[in-house]
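Long-time lurker. I teach an intro course on protein structure, and each term I like to show students one example going from raw sequence to a predicted 3D structure in token notation. This year I'd like something fresh instead of my usual example. Would anyone be willing to generate the tokens for the chain below so I can use it in lecture? Attribution to the forum is fine with me.
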Amino acid sequence: MSVAVVILNFNGKHFLEKFLPSVVTSSPKDSVYVADNGSSDDSIDFIKRHFPEVHLLIGEGNLGYAGGYNRALQSIKADYYVLMNSDIEPSENWLNPLVEYMDRNPQVAAVQPFILDYQNPSQFEYAGAAGGYWDNLGFPFCRGRIFDSIEKNEGQYGTSIVQWATGACLLVRSDIYWLVGGLDEYFFAHMEEIDLCWRFQRAGYQVAAVAESTVKHVGGGTLDKGNPFKTYLNFRNNLILLYKNLSGRKKWFTLLLRMEADGLAGIRFLLTGEFSLLWAILKAHFSFYSYVLGHHPKQNLAHSLVKNTNTMRYSKSIVWAYFVQKKKKFSDLQF
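-- Reply from a regular --
Happy to contribute to a lecture. Here you go:
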């Protein structure tokens, strides 16, 4: 089975200098691609000079994570795509366990390695940890990370089916990727991989996290945690995620409850004086209303492909469990 390891780059020369050598040496020959997403730094010249063996795909304009990858992957022929952030340092044998798992499990459409913190490799990293889940209102969390509580990697989690796999390092079957429509470019960035994984499951496939593969992730390389644009994207895209993947009364009831939860978050930002984040939430909601009522493209799974409508694995509120019941670890949760 052929594999293409594809790094989406946007003004990330500093990360390419640091991490591209280890990606090249730990990946099969002739399998590494860098898809440039309209960079204005000298990333392209750097790759041409120092990594002639890397396939360079140059795109005009920054289309975000979703659009940038869709543009790049359309020109790559491989059985498996690996979507890898530029701030990832893979372990020496990171790829084989992922490919072998996929080969053994044809019902699995996507897998991720365990994501460790580059600065502190003994603990998981925020973006994906040991595999992701969402609660009854669409709030994402992970094995090894609930909100800002991050666990050490002490072997407590093994290879398992999960609900979503992180876009920081994501291996997907190329045919199934395009079957369900690829990444939704309206998301631009943040939660687009959760939407993709949800569509995989609605189409009857599964998603997994493989413990035998690990990578280290810097995190926050594009937008840091307190950036209002990141807050805007997270709140807007989470609403769109629910709108797209739920149906009937459950959709509207869940959206109503989620909007109330967003309102509480807005009050918290108001009381703490974080007015830029409060404004980001308000903008996110107005943008969501525009998405629903306007003529925006609403890329979704074709009705003929839907085989599974029951994709909920944690039917409770992670917000209640974490902040009220003080359940800080994944193992504290009751499924």
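Some talking points for your students: The first strand starts at residue 3 and ends at 9. The mean pLDDT is 95.
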